[in-house]
Amino acid sequence: MLHNQWDVAISCSLSPPMPIDQHQDMTYNGVIELVLTIESAPIATRKFSILSRVNYFVMASALALLLSATLCSVSQAEEEELFSVPDYNLNLLSNRPVSSGAAEDIWGWTNPLDSNEYVLLCVGTGLEIYDIATPTNPILVATVDALGGDLKDVKTYQRYAYAAEQSGPIQIIDLGFLPDSAITVGAFNAPDIPGSHNIYIDTTIGFAYLGMNGVGKADIRILDLSNPISPVAVGSLSQTDAFCSVGTADTHDMWCEGDTCYYASFNNGILIVDVTDKTAPEFIQIHRYTKNFTHSIWPSADRKFVFTTDEIPGGHLRIFDVQNKNQIRQVGSYQATESSIIHNAHVRDTLIFISYYTEGVKVLNISDPIHPVEVASYDTYPQGASASSNGCWGVYPYFASGIIAASDRTNGLFLLSLTEVNHGWLTGTIRDQNGATVPGARISIDNTNYMTYSLADGSYRLPAPNQTDFVTVFRSGYDIFFAPVVMSQATTTPFNPTITAQAGATISGSVTVRDNNGASSIDTTVRFGVSAHFLGPIAPANDGSFSLGNLRRGTEQITAYRWGYISADTIIEALNQPVEIALELQTGYSDDFEWDLGWRVGEQSVSRGAWERSIPFATFYLNDIVQPDSDHGSGADRYCWITGASNPGASFSQNDVSSGSTTLFSPLIDLRAYGNPHVNYWRWFSNNHGFNSGADPWVTAVSNDGGTTWVTLEDTTLAAAQWTQMDFRIRDYIQLSNQVMFKFVATEGCNNSVVEAALDDFSIYDDGSTCCRLAGDANDDGTFNIGDVVFLINRIFTGGPNGPCPDQMNANGDGKFDLTDITFLIQTIFRGGPLPTCP
Question: Which of 16, 233, 680, 702 has the least C-beta neighbours within 10 A?
Fold first, then answer.
């Protein structure tokens, strides 16, 4: 079709192809894709799930008509903005360009005497003050020249405005005579505070907090406003005060209330400071996260969450749970585009107002902070979105009138009104065909980013758009379910899908164990696991038989395991019919950590990042990996021991080793029958990021008395953020016994470095070579004497322990140790017989 001199076309395609003779009411599963082109250039595409032939024709026709109607309603003047994100639920009341300079931060003040509302707008060289009693016609009533040339931020307390200069004093302006005049009545300056980028005022108690942003000898400053026109500096935090000399020179913005401050600290992330004693503030916690550039911070109304903005291209609004300040964790995020830059954010009740530079103003509903939902948008910068700091600098949403004031660096002051529309929710319970609840099912809404998993009781809660869309439910072992659901804003839509479990498989068989001498037996302490679905542990019957029922169809790896034996496994194809297998375990020590064989965690003083057996997910410090993205194994292997497993996409600081040590202990190992055993394992160790990098140690130690005494195998501060194989000949460190243990220790000396450790594929093997260093030294004490005769007598006649080295017990070299070795030693020691020789 032709529209305003454009050649506009809408085409659609279907995948997979639909048979031409298929009856209209027959079931058909496919995807329809509509492509909008202008002047032969594809502009936009949209995909929808199709359930039937009728559904295909109805949806294709409706969408084509909708797009056509939209195009035909656009005037020539609107053509340039046809494909930009439309403004919705934020309505323009007025727009005023600034008198000079560029609009930067913005705040508001309401005169308590007459409730008149005023906008305070920083314009670099001064402060512009607007009377907004008539919001469609705001009046510039005062302009106050800045004491310096770079006015950045402004806040109010009582009748005064406090304007922050990047390189100048805090300017104090009396607003009490508005609308007639506003004059500078004071300033705060100090030799060690040459300027401040941001200011926040706790108006309930009269204290101001400065974000120095790299200027001055200390960049966290507290001012007492008891005398509003003559502030007094009462406290600060220098760079050496924070967590073992963590630098705070990039602390930028903050929010404070009572005894707690949250600081946005650029590359340092979130700093939480105890300001109970304003003269001696103390750090509570520092929380770094991946690819952060933490520019601003604001809490939720209930103070359970904080919202941060990362002022970088593609930066996110991030939501952190701070209810436990020692276990801060990110629980949600929002991103408008993959390239635009987010700036500031302010919370008002269940809404958060965001200045998003070239994207303008965004408003999100945060009634469920884990699932923020955009509910309003207004583009103050129609010049076009980009990864630049042009556009909207700040938003002030706190006027009692409901007026929203926004500053745009290029286009000046915007006054907006908000049409509040609450998003809806999709809620329900997922069950199978027998009515049983199904946990862990993924439920998602097509054509949106909304997705969640059902909880242990099968329930879920998901944000819902104001549209009809397909909802998909997926769970391994069940048929995929999807259906159209009509959802609407401001309501809760119940949706209780039933998914059909696939027919299960049965696997049965037997297991035996075999010792070093080849003798086989049944051991009912052996356990079974099904790795594909992580079923286990399952014990065999007294005769060694086992049966695993109701398994999901598909490929399964069945593993038999017990500490002291080499695990046995086999891969089978589990169908809805019985499968028979036989497994045999042999004596030995090998653990890939896919199953719990009795390792334990102890001796720990960390606040987070303790050892745990888990599936690893990568974390990054800037662009460098610090926690592994997978275990060392291959195939069905997934688990390893790791210091604080992270969630997918989590910050590097979510669960790294923090403020102490964590120790992992092996079960006891009997090495008496080994000739020349080695311990072999793969480790991951990262300590070379953050402050105090490269100083924290990894330690491995071995004991032969059940952990009473230890001998160090390695003690290193050398980082290796990759799986690294380590191998040690055990005899070089201890005498062999049946009480051998290993321990692995990861330590962070203080809260300012990034320490991650992992362990996988542990094994003991005998290298087959002789262990003989001094023939005839049966007790391996380094000397050849009568003590070795006594040791052999005890071994042969009273069942004493084997010697640490069987080769040295075989004094006469006949390949075995017995009474003749005792006779040989006596002859050598007392009668000058031939000396023993190593084989």
Answer: 16
